[in-house]
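**User:** Everyone, produce a chain:

**Assistant:**
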Amino acid sequence: MSSPREPLHVTGEVLVVKKVGAYRHLTLAAPGIAERYRPGTFVAVSIGDLTPRTHLARRSLWITGVRPTGSHGPTIELVVEPGGVGSTWLADRRQGDRVELTGPLGRPFALPKQPVACLLVGEGYAAGLLFPLAERLRARSCTVTMLLGAQDEPHLLGALDARRAARAVTVVTADGSVGRRGTLADALPAVMDGVDVVYGAGTHVGLHAVAATAEQFGAWSQVAVEVPQPCGTGLCQGCALPVVGEDGVPRLVRACTDGPVIRGDRVRWAELTGTESGPA
C-alpha cells in the first residue's frame, strides 16, 4: 500500500475543458491524486495518445485546485497555456479523453504555524496555484492579500477569484489593460506594509522581484520556480535549479524533488534570469 504522501501514476479522465482568456482550464478525475494534494505540488502528464504510444517528454503542470464531485470523487484542476507541441496537445483535449499522469509531485508551500500577514504574488497562469494556498492560509487565521500580474488581460488569471480569496487585491498588467500599468517589481513595494511572508508563482524575473523585495522589507519568501522538467520525478536529472545551500555553498538541486517551491533567498537568480543586476 502506498503512503498518503507518495505520488501515484494513474490514467485520468478529462471531465471539463473551458477556455479562460489565453488559457485552457481542465478538470480531471485522477483517483488518489486529489487526496494527496498540497498547494505548490504538480503533476507530470504524458503527452500523446495512449495507443499507440506516441508521447513526447512529459509536461509538468501546477495543480491549481481540487474539487469534490458526486460521481468521480475529488477532481484536480490544471491550467494550460497553448504554445508548443505538448501544451497544444493538452489544450486540445476534450471531455472523456484519457491522459496518463503522475502526482502529486514536488515540495509544497510551507504553511505558517501561527497567524501571520501573507502576501500572495501570482503572474500569468502560475497565479492559479495560489488560490488553494489562500484557502489553507485563511483556515489558519492568516491575513491574505494578493498581487496579480500579467502582460495583458487575456493572460491575467483569476482576478475575480482573488477578490473572493483575499482581503485586498492589486492587479498590474504590462499594457495597462487591467489594473495598473506596470510590472510586479513596480507594484511590490506599495503592498509590503506589515507583510510577514510572501508566496510567489510566476516568471523567473517576477519571482526575482518577489524575493528581492521580501528581503528588502524583512519578510520571508517562498517561490514556486518553474524550470523544464522532462520526467518530473528526479530520475532524469534534467531540471537543474541553481541555489545557495544552507552552508552558503552554491550548488545545483533538482527542481522537481528539492523544489519547485523553495525559499526566495536561496535561488541564484542571476543564473536563471541571465542578469547580474537586480530585478527590472
